[in-house]
Amino acid sequence: MTRIVTASVVIIGNEILSGRTQDGNLAYLARGLNELGVRLVEARVVADDDAAIAEAVNALRARRDYVFTTGGIGPTHDDITARAIAKAFGVPCRRNPDAVAILERFYADGEHPLNEARLSMADMPEGAELVDNPVSGAPGFRMENVFVFAGVPRIMQAMFEGMKHRLVGGAPVRSRSVAVDLPEGTIAETLARVEAAHPGVEIGSYPYYRSRGFGVKLVLRSVEEDRLATATEALIEALRVLGGKPVEETVETG
Amino acid sequence: MTRIVTASVVIIGNEILSGRTQDGNLAYLARGLNELGVRLVEARVVADDDAAIAEAVNALRARRDYVFTTGGIGPTHDDITARAIAKAFGVPCRRNPDAVAILERFYADGEHPLNEARLSMADMPEGAELVDNPVSGAPGFRMENVFVFAGVPRIMQAMFEGMKHRLVGGAPVRSRSVAVDLPEGTIAETLARVEAAHPGVEIGSYPYYRSRGFGVKLVLRSVEEDRLATATEALIEALRVLGGKPVEETVETG
Q: B103: nearest CA in chain A?
């Protein structure tokens, strides 16, 4: 049995909690981690508040293999993530010379001055290891099993793609997806029976209401491809017996 | 000084944590709550797991005025929210006669039978108060300060709209939004200075990269409309001094 490698995400930002900004980073990280065999098991959205960030990070880093934070590492007064992470680890937040060197190179063209606000993006918890930012210069960082990324999706994605080879995953979860034109209440007993008959396979049931009618999307997930195939066939057959027209959708991970 | 009324949201579902489904309920609830003067201060996304749901709900209900959960109240085996909430409150999960009566009326046309799977949607923690579901019959419920909603956005929204008059809010947070064509690092010191000069007003800074260029969206938030107006004017003036072309965007709450 492969060990399950787990991760949590901490989304930092008042703009998410006010409903002004729709987060998309969670879904991106979830899919990216799954491909590496790292299972996202919890996420938290916290305000731009030192204590709230530190509390969430400390609660999660103790019980997950990896923690990823997004948001709050820019040059403005509301960018307090570095300070909060330093607090979480009980270390001082200091100007990191390697980060300063990166900023000096990035701003070398002189179009924008490397002023104190921009330099503050080099303030990091003592002991931080840099995470490359190919988009806008200012690096993210790592403290033990905690990775600190930007909140702007384009930058967050570039940071993740650039460091993900460092993560040690387990077996990736494979999934198959079947849509059926029957209501959930009609197929519920069948689903439970098929799941019980296929240990190691988890079946999720997601009703949908579309313009052309309602139905249910069934997602089968397992780390074992053979079991997944057997369970999918059994499910499709059982749904036909119930009078449905099950259709398998594109195979994907996640 | 008006008391600040706070809320948390617990989003329940493996499909969110796998990245398969993009959550939209958080932003909807955040905006709806804000209009009522209830501030969303934290959210958690947890797996379809009794213990994880109960832990999150217990951690949050003790320290927030309201907690809202979304997801996991349908008729299938992966719908375990009611059981988990009963566990969180230390009460039995029993078939609720009022909920059964609602289901009986909803399925009275005989198109779909009220089978055991559908009846299981009436299983609720002892003491639960029903939350109306005008879309698909099966009610949500309330236990003390915890409101349990469906995960399907259309149903969740109908449940929230139908019960929100029961919530007692504080002063709603008003916001104004200014876009400027200057990089964050250039305006950072100015932002901090304007915020410091206007107590009770919070300024958030959100850089954007669009096809027609980059810039920063600044969001000023306050419960006091007068202070908000004064701070917005001061900010616009200060951004002009820096050589920017600030543009105020549509006034909105949130």
A: A185
Please answer yes or no on whether A42 and B47 come within 8 Å at the CB atom: yes
Nearest by CB: A76 against B18, B116, B184: B184
A252: left (phi over 0), alpha (psi -120 to 50) or beta: beta
| Structural domain ending residue among the three candidates A106, A141, A166 | A166
Q: Which of B17, B30, B43 sits opposite A41 (nearest CB)?
A: B17
Q: Which of A10, A12, A17 to mutate to test the interface with B (most CBs of B within 10 A)?
A: A17
Maximum pairwise Cα distance, chain A: 71
Contacts of A39 in chain B (CB under 8 A): 17
pLDDT tens sequence for chain B (254 residues):
457 899 999 999 999 999 989 999 999 999 999 999 999 999 999 999 999 999 999 999 999 999 999 999 999 999 999 999 999 999 999 999 999 999 999 999 988 999 999 999 999 999 999 999 999 999 999 999 999 999 999 999 999 999 999 999 998 889 999 999 999 999 999 999 999 999 999 999 998 877 667 789 999 999 999 999 999 999 999 999 999 999 998 755 44
Say if residue B130 is in the same domain as residue B237: no
| Beta carbons within 10 angstroms of residue B4's beta carbon | 15
The reply to whether residue A17 touches residue B42, judged by beta carbons under 8 angstroms, is yes
- The pTM of this model reads 0.94
User: Which of A231, A237, A215 lies closest to A174, judged by CA?
Assistant: A231
Q: Answer yes or no: do A77 and B41 touch at CB < 8 A.
A: no
Nearest CA in chain A to B187: A76
In this complex, do B152 and A27 lie within 8 Å of one another by their Cβ atoms? no
pLDDT over threshold 80, residue A84: yes
Q: Which residues of B are less than 8 Å from A207 in CB distance?
A: 74, 152
Taking an 8 Å cut-off on Cβ atoms, the answer to whether A207 and B118 are in contact is no
pLDDT of A160-200, one tens digit each? 999 999 999 988 889 999 999 999 999 999 999 999 999 99
Binary contact (B207, A74; C-beta < 8 A): yes
Q: What CATH number is given to the structural domain containing B229?
A: 3.30.70.600
Candidate from A22, A44, A187 with C-beta closest to B42: A44
A241 shares a domain with A220 = yes
B106 three-state secondary structure: helix
DSSP bridge pairs for B3 = none
Distance between CA atoms of residues B207 and A42, nearest Å: 27
In eight-state DSSP terms, residue B121 is G
Q: Are B117 and B75 in contact (CB under 8 A)?
A: yes
Is A113 in the same domain as A196? no
Query: Nearest-CA residue of chain B relative to A22?
Result: B27
ipTM: 0.93
Same domain for B122 and B26, yes or no, is: yes
First to last CA, chain A: 20
